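Lab notebook, design round three. We kept the backbone fixed and only want residue identities now. Task for the bench partner: fill in a sequence for the structure below.
Input structure tokens:
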């Protein structure tokens, strides 16, 4: 399965993802293909829509305190729903689909989610810190929402200008 990362302003990033019903080889192949592309792109989180699969699938791999990112802490989250949330926290977010741009975004500080693992087992997770932020960021992707959609009008304008400029720069021969 050869995947590539879909980048803004590709319209596919606006698609709503659909629930996973079958926890079969096709799902496992997708999950297994998402991991290396996330790691090779220096990512800590990836939603399936970012590789053009509009399915409620996301993976997260938050580095430990010493900066090490090991597959042992990989989280595979299918069909997540937030069942409880508390507090507010701000973090300078980025996104593999919006390369080179980072902005402060407000999120819930602590969340509890219900989700399924790759075998369809139901799980509950309560978390805060970077993992909580990353889960909320990735869950937004399932609804076709990017972190730049949460910016104020003026910051969004600043983003569009900077991003277009950077894209032109990229395309230069
Ligand atoms: C989502 O983001 C996230 O611009 C995951 O040039 C964001 O992995 C989780 C990345 C904020 C927690 C907090 C971005 C890599 C990676 C770039 C990412 C880039 C290279 C973003
Ligand atoms: Co993202």
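Proposed sequence:
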């Amino acid at each position: 399965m050869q995947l590539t990362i879909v980048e803004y302003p590709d319209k596919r990033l606006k698609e709503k993802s659909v629930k996973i019903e079958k926890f079969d080889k096709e799902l496992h192949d997708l999950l297994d293909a998402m991991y290396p592309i996330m790691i090779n792109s220096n990512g800590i989180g990836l939603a399936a829509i970012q590789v053009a699969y509009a399915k409620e699938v996301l993976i997260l791999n938050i580095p430990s305190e010493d900066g090490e990112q090991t597959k042992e802490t990989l989280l595979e989250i299918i069909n997540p729903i937030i069942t409880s949330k508390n507090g507010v926290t701000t973090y300078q977010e980025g996104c593999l689909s919006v390369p080179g741009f980072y902005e402060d975004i407000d999120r819930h500080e602590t969340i509890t989610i219900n989700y399924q693992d790759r075998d369809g087992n139901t799980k509950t997770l309560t978390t805060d810190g970077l993992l909580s932020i990353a889960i909320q960021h990735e869950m937004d992707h399932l609804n076709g929402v990017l972190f730049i959609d949460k910016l104020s009008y003026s910051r969004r304008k600043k983003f569009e200008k900077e991003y277009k400029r950077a894209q032109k720069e990229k395309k230069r021969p």
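Keep this in mind before ordering anything: The longest strand covers residues 75-93.
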